[in-house]
Here is the input.
Amino acid sequence: MGLLTVASMLPAEWVVRLVDTNVQELTKEDLAWADCAFISAMVVQRESTLRIIALCKESGLLVVAGGPLFMSDREQFASVDHFVLNEAEVTLPEFLKDFALGNAQRLYTSHRFADLQRTPMPKWELLDLKRYAGMSIQFSRGCPFHCDFCNVTALLGHRVRTKTSQQIIAELDSLYKLGWRDEVFFVDDNFIGNKAFLKKDLLPALIYWRKNKKDLLFITEASIDIADDTPLMKLMAKAGFNKVFLGIETPEEACLTECSKHQNMNRNLAEDVKNIQRMGLEASRPCP
Here is the structure.
C-alpha cells in the first residue's frame, strides 16, 4: 500500500509498474524495462531486500529506498542511491524536485508529520487483484499509547492523524469499481485512536456506503479498551467490521508495567474478548 501511494505522488509523465515480491517474482524483463527502482520493505524482509537491490544495481538501475527497514538500518545498504525516509508526503516532493534538477541528495528525512487529508489515493490499478486474499487501506496514523516495544510512535507519533471520511469512501469506491469483493484491512496503528471521529463521522459514512453491498467486510487492529465502548463496537459491526486484532502480549501486570502498556492493566482480558465477540466482532490476539 505504501508503494501504491508513492506511485500516486510521482510525476504524471512517469510510467510506473509495481512488483510485489510477496506474490510474484521480480523478472529480468521488469529490470530491463525500468530506469529506476523505488523499494520499500519492513525489517523482517532485510535479506530479500539486499538481494533485490543487488539485482537492480546489476541491471544499472537507480535505487531509491524508503520505509521502516531503511529508517533503522540504512547503513547496511551502501548501494542504495537515495534514501527518502519518514513520511513520503513530506520528503518525496523534496527529492523529486532535486531529482528533476539533477542534484538529488542521498538522504531525505524530516521530523514533520504529514497531513493525511492531502494524501493521494493509492494506485490500486497497478495490482493484479486476483493474487490477493485481502486489500489494505489506511484511515489514520499514530497511536496515543506509549508501549516501549513498538516502533509505531517513533515513526508516526502519538497524535492520531486521520483522513476524511470522503477520502476513505473514495478509496473503497475505487476498489469496488475494480471488482474487489473480499476483505479490506484498515491497517491503522490503532483504529480506535480517535473514537469521537469514528462515532460521529467515519462509521456512519461506512454504514451508509454499505447499503446494498453484501460483500467486502472489514478487519482492523485496536487496543483492548475497545471492549469498554459498546456503542462503538455496535457501530463497527454495523459498518461491516467482523474481525479485530488485539494487542495482548502478556497478562502479567509486572510485564505490562515494565513495557509501559498501561492500557492493558487491571483488566479481565478473557471477559474483554467475550464482550467484543458479543458485538459481532471476532477477536484475534497474539499468544502470551
